[in-house]
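Thread: Newbie trying to understand structure tokens

Hi all, I'm a second-year student working on a class project, and my supervisor (Dr. K.) asked me to get a predicted structure for one chain before our next meeting. I've only ever worked with sequences, so writing a 3D structure as a token string is new to me. If someone could post the tokens and maybe explain what I'm looking at, I'd be very grateful. Here's the chain:
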Amino acid sequence: MLGDSAINAALHALLARERGPRGAASVTELYTLLRKAARGDDARAVVNEWFAERVIYDLVADSATIEQRDDRARVVARFRVQRVRSDSTGEHESSANSALVTVGIYGGTTEAPQLLNTVRQRVTNGAIVVDLSIASTTPVQTPTFVEIDPEIRLINRERSNHRVRLSAPVPRRLR
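---
Reply by user tm_fold:
Sure, no problem. This is what the structure looks like when written as tokens:
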């Protein structure tokens, strides 16, 4: 959405202008530079959540399955997404619907992950469901797990439940 290069450029511009012993870079200036660098409404909304609001997400990887078909793998993953706004009166749940969230599909292990694909999807009814077919011609390219918000763009309450290992789907007659 915003990207490392835009964030780095804004920080570089701020520090170049405010460096020196009397430099006084401010959060307001950084906010202004990041809003200017944001391309599109989705990126501006994230910058606003970072600086102008107190928003925390609950992102949870619920389930993920993989079906191997020749040189392709079908990955189906479900994530829950909840947005909580905080103010002087406490925490208030608000809809995360229409928020744009990234999901990463990885091969390898969690210790040595290899990013195979990313998907950006909008939250619908408090969830994201990814259903996609990707090439998997070698064991390294075979998807092994999925992760929501792999770039850590959203402020999240708990990061330990973002990943889920892919498993074979349960046959319909056993459900």
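A couple of things are worth pointing out once you decode it. The beta strands are 55-69, 72-87, 90-94, 100-108, 113-122, 127-135, 145-148, 163-165. The first strand starts at residue 55 and ends at 69. Feel free to ask follow-ups in this thread.
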